[in-house]
Input
Amino acid sequence: MADFVYYVGSSVDGFIAQEGGNLAWLDKFDNVEGLGESYRSFEEGVGCVVMGGETYQWIREHHPGEWSYRVPCWVFSHHELSADDGADVVIVRGDVAEFADELRLAAGGRDVYIVGGGDLAGQFLAAGLVDRIVVTFVPEVLGGGVPLFGAQPLPEARSFRLVGLVQRDGTVELDYRLADA
Output
């Protein structure tokens, strides 16, 4: 069965982007040995991606004409958005829990990759739909921006257990699995 996985990079103070979605602070970590391989290895197990509308618009703005995901992509948005030609993108509105079964089906037994942003990841977490969190902390303090899990309140605490840790050139990748899974 497909796992819902939040795979993300974060500053040590818990932000995934600066105000306005700026990711330039991550650029200096592009060449950290092993980070790219880690992501590519993770991506091989992904059957479907989900993201928020702002993340979707950021990707389209910063990578025009090149849609990087080769699996179905579901975009949760309150805005009217369109898909690029040739991209397997479904724009949806509503509670993430309402779409869980469809997302698992679209993933075809592989993982559902929660790309972001933090608010959407928080919605999946609050709905009990995060099986795994893989977060790479980078040695930067942003002091503000987009929080790792947004501002979504949790109806109850969730416990995760550490199943993997990799240190690379100042970064630390932590792989957590839902404790009762």
